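ligand=zinc ion
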Amino acid sequence: MDNNEKDVDIKNENINEENKNINETETETDIKEESSEENFSIKNFFAKHKTSIKYISFGIVIFILIILFLTIFLGDKLADANLKNIKTLENIFKEDIGVVTLDPGHGGEVPISAPDLQEKEKDDVLKLCLLIEKELKDRNVKVIMTRKDDSSVELEERAEIANKNNSDLFLSIHRNISDVGDHINGIEVWLAYDKGEISDIYGTNLHDALLASHIQSDRGIRYGSMTNPKENYKVNGLTTMPSALIELGFMTNDIDNELYDAYMSEYAVNLADAVVKTLTYMNENK
Ligand SMILES: [Zn+2]
């Protein structure tokens, strides 16, 4: 009897085990059904929204193309722009009003008449030219620099850079040295003696800009060169557009040096305005 009961128990156990297996199989089937249902609904979703998906994909492609266009065609302008305000954003899409080659005098190993002031002149004029460059770009003027660092550039090459870039104006910045005495001070604007009316108007605008700035004294508009009024400084003579060379104060005079350091930004703003005034005149009288 005991044995029989045991047998029945074992059978029951087997049946339970079988039921368990069946349950497990059912659960697997359920999972399979569920996932095939899911696949079906994703397919359904794509089928249902085929047109919308097409439009969205098309939109993404157009967006990428616009970004590519902006990067390739406006990259330089965007890089140059100071994206601080809306006015600058407006300027990005405005046309340039002209091309100006800016020439920070000397640089590298190009010697000057007072070797102990060589470092000072090339640094002073580069600093100012970089400020003028920014002011001009803010006013929609395309700027070409003959040097942007301490490199040596020959005078002929500076003129060539301006000529080959079809510049409308050329502006060279220098600082003066006196071998007479350290009391000599003031600014000079040098023009080519033979470049005509627009060159003279340009020189007058630059001169006025300096007279409206903090300077110690005015030494006037001059023609040719220190040694000969009928022999132009090379950059004025070899450039094919109206050009000017400014001697912005004497490095041998302490007050001129103090003014230069204190009012460099003012010089940059006023000289940029003078350039724009000249370009505007040129554009109106083409
Ligand atoms: Zn110089």
